[in-house]
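Thread: "does anyone have the structure for this chain?"

Original post by V.I.:
We have the sequence but no experimental structure in hand. Need at least a predicted one for the grant figures.
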Amino acid sequence: MVSKPVPLTKEGLDKLQKELDYLLSTGRAEVAQRIHDDKELVGAQNTPEYEDARNAQAFVEGRILELETTIQNAVIIQEQHDHQRVGLGSTVTIINHKGKREHYTIVGSAEADPKAGKVSNESPVGQALLGKALNAEVQINAPAGVLRWSIVKID
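Reply from O.Q.:
Generated one for you, tokens below.
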């Protein structure tokens, strides 16, 4: 199976690699110890504590696989030097329909964090902004309705 490239910033890749290193070196061992302790404590494998520990193990193993695949398929987003068009890795300053300034950085879906202003290139906001020029008017179809923004700065 061919996996698609995963665009990441250098910082995003480093963050994922640190999480993977932690899970491989510490997270797995902690969950294994929990399973062992719960098994020893009760002597049975049908307790809620044991089931919770097994679920935690499944989560950790799934996350490890997800991180390994993401890192293996990572493509580093190159720094943008074009301050005239929005591209992957650009930080865009917009003025929203209420006249308020907002900042968004366009990143790959693996490191999207809307609360921190990092929007995925695959999200409605990311798709609407990509390729747009400085001073362009942008319409975004959002669940709350159509949003109208004006791009005032591209870094």
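V.I.: this helps a lot. The chain has three helices and seven strands.
O.Q.: and Residues 31 and 56 are 7 Å apart (CA to CA).
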